[in-house]
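Sat 14:20. Reprocessing the chain from the morning session after the first attempt stalled halfway. Input below, unchanged.
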Amino acid sequence: MKTRLIIAKGLLALGLVGLFGFATGIPAARAGVGSVDKSSLDYKVHRELVTLPWYGVFDNLEYQVNGGKVVLSGQVVSEHSQTKNDAENAVKRIPGVTEVVNNIEVLPPLPFDNDIRRAEYRAIFSQSTLGGYSMGAIPQIHIIVHGGHVTLEGTVMNQMDRNIAGIAANSVSDVFSVTNNLKIG
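Finished this time. Tokens:
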């Protein structure tokens, strides 16, 4: 019975990844949804960022491509501070990139924030309608915690999932504020 459940979850995850492109929190316009020119600089930057080894649910990477200039932004937890440099170095190696501006913020190592991260993860991904968003190498919902303030980033399938994630995030105690930046895509 357990084997069937694990296989079913694996097939669901593969189906979600196939249906929605890359399972990431990078905005849908950058997530390979729809027809994307795989030779485009935008696609190459996206691919490099989502394959960084330490990029996870508590990190948020964003970027803008303007000609050959790439501006990186977002936040990474201090335990993944190398991700900031890895992102810059990976993007610099892409043919056609002439300049990289690295505005990625490394969040300070606060034990209080780590407790909130764990509680937020449990509160959000334990919801039956949101559990599927935690599947894949990089969950589609990213939980950013800075000084007790929580921001949800990423993409969900519909308004109901966005609302449920916001309600779940607000249910965690000791959180000063919750900003729900989840996009529907």
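The first helix runs from residue 2 to 20.
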